[in-house]
């Protein structure tokens, strides 16, 4: 007997739910709703990612088309060969050379050209390379890991410190002694009415009595004591290995974990560059800046693969960073991956930083399309969808002062833009200089670098420039430093980790021995394009032309005249500077009156008007 299709059901669920959905949505829409619910339930039950399935479904047709073109091209070449062999067998009387004619060659080359683009477009996936992070055994043992202290000697020095203060009518009691590998801190409880400034005023006398080179007085509010840091008679070298083996470094999940050194109590100090997000380093010659930079680079190399973190190294001195030239972590936005090298020239550095600003803009555009806020969210989304993750870029400038002498304007503009916006896209800056003056570390740079690392400075003024407080002039040098984290009111005193050149070369040889390909996104080739709008040039032209028209009309020039017409003394001063730079006005030596070149002003206005008319006609 014939059974109507409407009475057939797949089971109890279909028998009971289908009439309900059919009455609610109709015949076909109800069937579609049931199928959708079934597929969603299966995906949740077997933990199948729907977005990944859709991505693979859309990706496969494209791969199938490319594969079909390759097979078609190979069939064409094979058919031509078969045709040639048949023709050679049938016409044995006339000997012919074993070559294809010109038309067959062209068809063969055309067929092979269909295969080559597909091969050239195939990008090497760095994930297939089994990269191993360096082992800490490549570094020397830390001699300061298990330092021993002479208890009697510490108590004797504490009593000497108390009696020295008593000689100057400063009552104090030693509450705690905190020995370290380089410095020992004596925590003092001052008598009521004694100010900290009174103790700070006799630092030289305390140093003389304690027979030490330099003493630093630091208030410790959480313990209600005053700490006096006295250098040890024999200091130990703090090695990088002991900090890398610490639990703080091993448990840190950040790829930009920095092992800076050890505190005054001998514990390793580890911080995260991503949270800073940029670092400013300063100190006198020989104070330990370059060694600290090596420790920073190696600590990142111990955490990150070459496809996770890249280094853009700028070394105007040309002697500190050549050992990192061949590692696969090197990055230069001006060149391709194979040609990336250490940047040494000031103008080359300015061009690279400018290109890096374009890379930042490209990444922001890419992140906006994916609707993510930062590089962490973007990489997490790429893991889910199967896309390619972005890498971090750490820019290290070993001597900023040398660059600021030659190309200050270009360098400062690029650093300002990167410092303000580059954090979200994974670009971080580390600037180092041995001349922390206001001409090098300008207010714009300081405002965007909240994290400061100061080694020994030659004067109190330099200490104020880098730390906004005194203290760096009292350091001992050779890695003794003050680190001011962002948001902290008081810097932490550290002894920087020492890394020898042989240790660094061992780590680099281990990395280079794995032959990891030097790969990164080809965005560097895309950023070199002509941008139709230049904000600085447009603003400059906007102020220049009305000023020239005003001068031509009034037949005079002064700051008060510009201030009255343009508003603001800062803007008037800027316009005067532009006019003098372009030689529209000059002030002869020995006079205080501006001389105006009216012919040049008239010529410039005519050319500008002519260009504007030409653009309107086009």
Structural key phrases:
disordered N terminus; single chain; Rossmann fold; alpha/beta; 4 domains; DNA binding; 21 helices; Threonyl-tRNA Synthetase, Chain A, domain 2; 15 strands; 9-stranded mixed sheet; FtsK_alpha; 4-stranded antiparallel sheet; ATP binding; 618 residues
Structure described in brief:
The protein is of the alpha/beta class and 618 residues long. It has helices at 12-25, 27-45, 50-90, 102-121, 151-167, 196-200, 203-210, 240-244, 247-250, 289-301, 346-370, 375-385, 400-421, 443-447, 460-467, 501-512, 523-526, 535-554, 559-566, 569-581, 598-617; strands at residues 172-178, 183-190, 216-220, 225-231, 257-263, 268-272, 279-282, 309-314, 392-397, 427-433, 451-454, 480-484, 492-496, 585-586, 595-596. The protein is globular and about 100 Å long.
